[in-house]
DNA sequence: ACCCTCCTGTCA
DNA sequence: TGACAGGAGGGT
């Protein structure tokens, strides 16, 4: 479910809410999530909250000031809710898989499909994604062109690769390619410098705008406060198969690539 | 690039 | 009942 903008939204919301608080205890409801490392979290203090790829990452201070990292990957259906002590037990907590109890409330992992993953590590290298962050300063148009390299992969599948750019998922891959006027089946390595520049602009523009609107709630994304994202009304192609393109009127097509839906406008994207 | 798997829920 | 769902890892 959550892609870069949704994860960024949650991380930004949580940072001021939980920074400085100590981990009182951990309640692992779903045994699947248990791991040795989780014990290390007890009594650690949260220093910072950030996003790495599609993960929400907590930087903590352990005993003797040793840093410790907790990464939460929500995968398809996970939510990470901040529930202050004042109001526990709300409607959006039907599938609680874990609780990280802090001084003044709890971080609640709610996840019907149980795909979410918790990772604890002593080094940030273990949780850092291999790919470049699409919004970081290093990603210039030239750098993107270099990454696209001689890849024969279709653009849509290339954008989903987390070892190239980290954070783009199924909704934004389609939206970005529409914004760049590029066909999802174009070979990644076949782009001209001009087309790579268009893709670069689209990646940054779409993701930034989605963050500004707190992400997309297509069916069930909720942010850390349990609210929906506002980017849904700006979606141009995702989920709009059979409907007219907002820019040229051609009917939006749905196609399956790598087992997942791709939406695009055959009129605008070539 | 394809298929399946991990899970559970929702919708046609 | 079957298709599909925002992710990712495995194996052909």
Description:
The protein has 270 residues and is α+β, with helices and mostly antiparallel strands. It contains five helices and ten strands. The strands form three sheets. A four-stranded antiparallel beta sheet has the order 1-6-7-5, covered by helices on one side. A hairpin with a 5-residue loop joins strand 3 (55-61) and strand 4. Helix 1 crosses helix 5. It is globular and about 55 Å long. It binds a DNA duplex (12 and 12 nucleotides) through helix 4.
- Which ranges are low-confidence, i.e. pLDDT below 50, for 5 or more consecutive residues? none
Q: Strands of the biggest beta sheet: in what spatial order?
A: 1-6-7-5
- Please outline the major beta sheet: 4 strands, antiparallel
Give the overall form. Answer: globular
Find the count of extended strands (DSSP E, 2+ residues).
10
Oligomeric category = single chain
Q: Give the SSE order as H and E letters.
A: HEEEEEEEEHHHHEE
The total count of helices amounts to: 5
> What radius of gyration results from the CA coordinates?
20 Å
State the end-to-end CA separation: 28 Å
- On the 0 to 100 scale, the average pLDDT is 96
Strand content: 15-25%
Given helix and strand content, the structural type is: alpha+beta
Helix content: 10-25%
Topology diagram in text:
Elements: H1 4-18, E1 25-28, E2 45-52, E3 55-61, E4 67-73, E5 79-84, E6 96-101, E7 105-110, E8 117-121, H2 141-148, H3 155-160, H4 170-179, H5 193-212, E9 253-257, E10 260-264
Antiparallel strand pairs: 1-6, 2-3, 3-4, 4-8, 5-7, 6-7, 9-10
The protein binds a DNA duplex (12 and 12 nucleotides) through residues 1-3, 6, 32, 54, 73-77, 95, 111-115, 117, 153-154, 157, 160, 162, 169-172, 216, 218-221, 238, 257-261.
């Amino acid at each position: 479910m959550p892609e870069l903008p949704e994860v960024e939204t949650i991380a930004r919301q949580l940072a001021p809410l939980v920074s400085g608080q100590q981990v009182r205890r951990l309640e692992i409801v779903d045994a699947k999530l248990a791991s040795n490392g989780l014990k290390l979290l007890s009594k650690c203090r949260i220093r910072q909250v950030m996003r790495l790829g599609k993960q929400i990452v907590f930087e903590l201070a352990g005993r003797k000031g040793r840093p410790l990292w907790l990464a939460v990957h929500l995968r398809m259906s996970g939510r990470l809710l901040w529930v202050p002590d004042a109001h526990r037990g709300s409607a959006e907590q039907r599938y609680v898989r874990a609780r990280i109890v802090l001084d003044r409330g709890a971080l609640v992992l709610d996840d019907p499909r149980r795909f979410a993953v918790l990772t604890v590590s002593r080094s940030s290298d273990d949780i850092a994604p291999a790919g470049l962050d699409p919004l970081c300063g290093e990603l210039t148009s030239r750098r993107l062109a270099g990454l696209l390299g001689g890849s024969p992969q279709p653009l849509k599948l290339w954008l989903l690769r987390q070892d190239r750019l980290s954070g783009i998922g199924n909704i934004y891959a389609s939206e970005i390619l529409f914004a760049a006027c590029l066909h999802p089946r174009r070979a990644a390595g076949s782009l001209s410098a001009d087309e790579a520049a268009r893709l670069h602009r689209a990646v940054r523009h779409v993701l930034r705008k989605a963050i500004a609107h707190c992400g997309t709630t297509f069916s069930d994304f909720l942010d850390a406060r349990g609210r929906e994202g506002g980017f849904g009304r700006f979606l141009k192609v995702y989920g709009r198969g059979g409907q007219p393109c907002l820019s040229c009127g051609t009917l939006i097509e749905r196609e399956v690539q790598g087992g997942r839906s791709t939406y695009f406008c055959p009129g605008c994207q070539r």
